[in-house]
Design brief:
Blueprint (H helix, E strand, L loop, with lengths): L2 E6 L2 H4 L9 E7 L4 E3 L2 E3 L8 E3 L2 E3 L2 H7 L3 E5 L4 E5 L6 E3 L7 E11 L2 E10 L6 E12 L5 E8 L4 E2 L4 E8 L7 E13 L6
Antiparallel strand pairs: 1-2, 2-5, 3-4, 5-6, 7-8, 9-10, 10-11, 11-15, 12-13, 12-14, 12-16
Length: 198
């Protein structure tokens, strides 16, 4: 194995971005391994490396997260790695007119006369650099097909391809016992974004 002297902290490097700075140094080794995701082999490309430090593997966050269906970005102003993903219990909704938009209900709870909603939304696209302004409604119906609640959401900032945007909000009524939920996309604006990937 090749020996490397690496800057500590390595967060920016593991994300594949530039700008990792450090004052201390550590001794680490290249760790030549492949990765299996549910028994499916995935090999690292030349953009990523895995390191061994004190018997622990330090893995490329973006590679791992994206192979698990998550979204990763680095917030330089907060020095924070953000990972967004859909939990296993998510109820997915779709609007047949906009098949690239995915909305998921993660949890509903009632508080007084309002429903608290935890949800997420993401956009698939063939263009890596485009960004999306979105607006949608989720309509909740009981077993008698009567609407018992409606939640409306508008993106405050555009979404990037693959980004999973978390939503925590509330709306009037109690929709926790809903039988069916329908996604209705009311705005979908695609426009060119910044081509620089972090």
């Amino acid at each position: 194995m090749k020996k490397f002297i690496l800057g500590f902290v390595c967060g920016g490097l593991l994300l594949g971005s530039v700008g990792a700075y450090a004052s201390d140094k550590i001794e680490a080794y290249l760790f030549p391994v492949d990765y299996g995701f549910n028994a499916e082999l995935r090999q690292l490309n030349s953009e990523y490396e895995t390191f061994n430090y004190k018997g622990h593997a330090y893995v490329p966050v973006r590679f791992i997260a994206e192979n698990l269906g998550a979204y990763v970005n680095y917030d330089d102003s907060k020095k924070r790695i953000n990972i967004g993903y859909y939990p296993p219990n998510t109820v997915f909704l779709k609007d047949d007119h906009f098949p690239t938009i995915h909305a998921g209900i993660i949890n509903l709870a009632v508080d007084g006369g309002h429903t608290l909603i935890k949800a997420a939304v993401s956009v698939d696209s063939t263009d890596e650099n485009n960004i999306y302004d979105l607006q949608f409604n989720i309509k909740f119906y009981d077993s008698n097909k009567k609407m018992i609640g409606e939640y409306s959401w508008t993106s405050d900032t555009p979404l990037k391809k693959g980004e999973i945007r978390y939503i925590m909000d509330s709306f009037p009524g109690n929709a926790t016992g809903y039988e069916k939920a329908i996604l209705e996309v009311t705005k979908h604006v695609e426009k060119p974004g910044n081509s620089t990937k972090k």
